[in-house]
């Protein structure tokens, strides 16, 4: 299959939406990462997504909609869940809700009685979904286990000739996947940290939200087993090691010629690294998160490189999501001097 590249013009998006209506898979931009779009009501189309990604069948898919009204057919929405949608959609929050029996394919739910929904904050994505006229499944458009794609070129790298098309809208803004919150149970639980934080959710809900991904809740044994959590995620083939700001100068001492560093600009300067040795994570938590997967993918494809050292961020705001993805990419390896 020859993968066609689409721009975000009206004609191109309409052509891409017709492919989705025909049961084909088209990758599309969102503000978080690129997604793999297919008609969520067509099982043969959904199967193609699993094949293209090489994804295990019991790992459920997110359903992506252009309008919150599209949910009513599939799920029961509590007032609290409605409050989150009103406040955070369109945006980087995926909400897990109880399904109406028989309304959602087992391929989407992974056999669970729940389904995850998101309304992305990207115009091309919403235009595409609206034109297709159905909710579309939208898992990240990477080969299963690899870092998620933040550019159309990343998607092309993993998906060329495996899917019908890619809608190119340039680099994504957030750079990591959406926050996933389970609203199908009485106490909301964050299953994946993202741009929408625990504090923001608590402020809107006016109730306690558990972060299943924080060390605190893992220690107190309240961690639920979210389906995706058992699979290796976001990991390049190269050796990835995290380092702390305080260890930067020690790291510089032992840096081998084939090692590279991903760090913020002040850190790159402090360590006196050359352009070839360093990938800039910019100056803020937001720029660091936006650049994380792009840097990992770039060095993963460079046969000269042995180890990628990546600076940890302070665990505030989106820094938690950054450290969560970095921890997975590094298999939690930390630099020790
Ligand atoms: P991705 O497919 O890369 O966008 O990731 C989607 C994430 O949401 C995976 O970690 C899934 O396991 C998780 N997920 C999707 N649907 C559900 C669900 N119904 N219950 C729990 N987790 C879910
Ligand atoms: Mg993914």
TrEMBL record:
Keyword Zinc-finger in the entry? The reply is no
What PROSITE patterns has UniProt attached to this entry? YRDC
Molecular function terms from GO: ATP binding; double-stranded RNA binding; L-threonylcarbamoyladenylate synthase; tRNA binding
The catalytic activity, as recorded, is:
L-threonine + hydrogencarbonate + ATP = L-threonylcarbamoyladenylate + diphosphate + H2O
Q: Which GO terms describe its biological process?
A: regulation of translational fidelity; tRNA processing
Q: Where does ATP bind?
A: 55, 59, 114, 118, 140, 148, 192, 234
Superkingdom classification of source = Bacteria
Q: What is its EC number?
A: 2.7.7.87
GO cellular component, alphabetical, reads: cytoplasm
Q: Where can this protein be found?
A: Cytoplasm
Annotated signal sequence range: none
Could you say which residues bind L-threonine here?
A: 32, 178
Query: Where in the numbering of this chain does the YrdC-like domain appear?
Result: 10-196
Describe the family membership recorded for this protein in Swiss-Prot or TrEMBL: Belongs to the SUA5 family.
**Tell me, what does this protein do in biology?**
Required for the formation of a threonylcarbamoyl group on adenosine at position 37 (t(6)A37) in tRNAs that read codons beginning with adenine.
* Protein name per UniProt: Threonylcarbamoyl-AMP synthase
Organism field: Leuconostoc suionicum
């Amino acid at each position: 299959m020859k993968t066609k590249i689409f721009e975000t013009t009206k004609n191109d998006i309409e052509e891409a939406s017709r492919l989705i209506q025909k049961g084909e898979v088209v990758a599309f931009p969102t503000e978080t990462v690129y997604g793999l779009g297919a008609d969520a009501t067509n099982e043969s189309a959904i199967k193609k997504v699993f094949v293209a990604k090489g994804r295990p069948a019991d790992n459920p898919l997110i359903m992506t909609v252009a309008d919150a009204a599209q949910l009513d057919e599939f799920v029961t929405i509590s007032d609290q869940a409605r409050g989150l949608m009103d406040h955070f959609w369109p945006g980087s929050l995926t909400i897990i809700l109880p399904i109406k029996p028989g309304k959602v394919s087992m391929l989407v739910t992974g056999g669970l009685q729940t389904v995850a929904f998101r309304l992305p904050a990207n115009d091309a994505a919403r235009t595409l979904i609206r034109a297709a006229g159905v909710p579309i499944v939208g898992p990240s458009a990477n080969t299963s286990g690899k870092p998620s794609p933040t550019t159309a070129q990343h998607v092309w790298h993993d998906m060329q000739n495996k899917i019908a098309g890619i809608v190119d809208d340039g680099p994504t803004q957030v750079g990591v996947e959406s926050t996933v919150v389970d609203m199908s149970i009485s106490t909301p639980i964050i299953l994946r940290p993202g741009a929408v934080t625990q504090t923001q959710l608590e402020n809107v809900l006016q109730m306690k939200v558990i972060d299943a991904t924080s060390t605190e809740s893992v220690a107190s044994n309240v961690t639920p087993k979210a389906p995706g959590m058992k699979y290796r995620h976001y990991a390049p083939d190269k050796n990835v090691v995290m380092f702390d700001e305080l260890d930067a100068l020690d790291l510089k001492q032992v840096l081998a010629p084939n090692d590279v560093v991903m760090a913020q600009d002040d850190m790159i300067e402090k360590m006196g690294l050359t352009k070839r040795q360093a990938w800039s994570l910019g100056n803020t938590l937001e720029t660091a998160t936006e650049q994380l997967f792009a840097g990992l993918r770039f060095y993963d494809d460079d046969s000269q490189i042995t180890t990628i050292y990546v600076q940890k961020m302070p665990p505030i705001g989106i820094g938690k999501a950054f450290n969560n993805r970095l921890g997975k990419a590094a298999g939690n390896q930390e630099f020790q001097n």
